[in-house]
């Protein structure tokens, strides 16, 4: 994201993701370059600075390396994973494994395209679309875990899993389309400058609203076992499920605080969203693997593996 904040004639620039040339219609926003801050904020520099004389940015490499490492790990585990899947025939873990595999591949593709955008004007739109595709799969995994754990944990048939995945796909698609529409068709003028056009995650206000929403959702999940609701519905019994929810709750809290600071034209908020963006787009898929799939491809039996999807009331 690149954001330009004007206050009292001074210009604060901060970015998140990649920097691209803008189209000619950027005349709506004409910053006063004489009043620009001479030394950009360090949380901005790390996002657009190139490595040496190359046109490859540190930010893209930072997002690329963990995704490549995770994809290599998945490829290395693929033979044993396929053997384990044949033995258990668990549609839940097959779905999760495919999703994290695709997320890693899409993340790598997005980073590579971002590294080459300076030589192609069409790559700007492609990069934004790839960001939305990546977000779509990540959100689909999030919602799948929550729905399978809280609502459909007792369902183990392939048809029930397909229904859950269909629901999460529709919800994730709706979110991604909304975010993509705001990003491409109705970009926030504060998230672009005269010389740059950056992927802005749908704008500061959309980012703030979505972060607050997901923070409330995951916080509610964390406290559910301490409420009377546990006497009425079946809740997950595995501690790892609540650790997963707590981590995402904290991530969205920090992201929401950072977005709020950006909405208030406070440049330090960029540091918060930098960290949360990096963690979400590079570490989230491995987190899913460690939390829900590591035991599946380890030494656990089929019945123990299915226990990862909770079915009993605490």
TrEMBL record:
GO CC terms of this entry: plasma membrane
Domain of life: Eukaryota
Subcellular location: Membrane
GO MF annotation list: G protein-coupled receptor activity
Keywords, in A-Z order: Membrane, Transmembrane, Transmembrane helix
Entry-linked InterPro entries: TPRA1/CAND2/CAND8 (IPR018781)
Main location: membrane
Residues passing through the membrane, by range: 58-78, 90-113, 133-152, 164-186, 206-229, 241-267, 279-297
Membrane topology: Multi-pass membrane protein
Keyword Membrane appears in the UniProt entry: yes
Tagged with keyword Signal: no
Protein family: Belongs to the UPF0359 family.
Name of protein: Integral membrane protein GPR175
Source organism (scientific name): Sinocyclocheilus grahami
